[in-house]
Amino acid sequence: MKALSIRQPWAWLIVNGHKHIENRDWPTKFRGRFLIHASKGMTKHEYEDTKDFAGSMGVEVPGFDELKRGGLVGVAHLYDCVDQAESPWFFGKYGFIVDSAEPISFVPYKGQLGFFEVPEAPVTP
Q1: What is the DSSP letter of 89?
Q2: What ranges in 1-91 are assigned the alpha helix state H?
Q3: What is the CATH number of domain 2-113?
């Protein structure tokens, strides 16, 4: 199954149904279900900026130390890639439009750039 690394707390916002667009500098032709991998790195500054932005949308994110990092945290369905959108969550060159996102039990896993393959065996809802 394909996976995509996303920095926290953006990954948490997607898997919990708050954010429906993942911003990227590159387009994709991929469509379908994919795993969401939470990147290992997250600075306090990145966390605070994202927390403030999410708060402006009425969403409270978990504390810095509560966010799982360095592994698989959810699944979602990517159904489109756009270069413009009305959503306040869109601020990239391209937006991967997702739905049906849900968290999964955390599975430690090394991330990669772009979409990458993960065996389905370690994944449980």
Answers
A1: T
A2: 10-15, 44-56
A3: 2.30.130.30
Residue 76's CB: how many other CB atoms inside 10 A? 23
Phi, psi of 31, rounded to the nearest 5 degrees? -135, 140
Angle formed at CA 32 by CA 92 and CA 105, multiple of 5 degrees: 90
Distances (CA, A) of 101 to 9, 46, 93: 15, 23, 22
CA distance linking residue 64 with residue 102, whole number of Å: 20
Ramachandran area for residue 51 (φ above 0: left; ψ -120 to 50: alpha; else beta): alpha
Contact 72, 35 (CB under 8 A): yes
Joined together, the tokens standing for residue 31 give: 């469509």
Is the separation of the CB atoms in 38 and 11 below 8 Å? yes
What are the extents of the domains in the chain?
2-113
If you search the block for the tokens 């402006």, which residue do you land on? 56
Peptide bond into 9 cis (omega under 30): yes
List average pLDDT for each run of 10 residues in the chain, which is 125 residues long.
Answer: 96 97 96 96 94 95 96 96 95 95 94 87 56
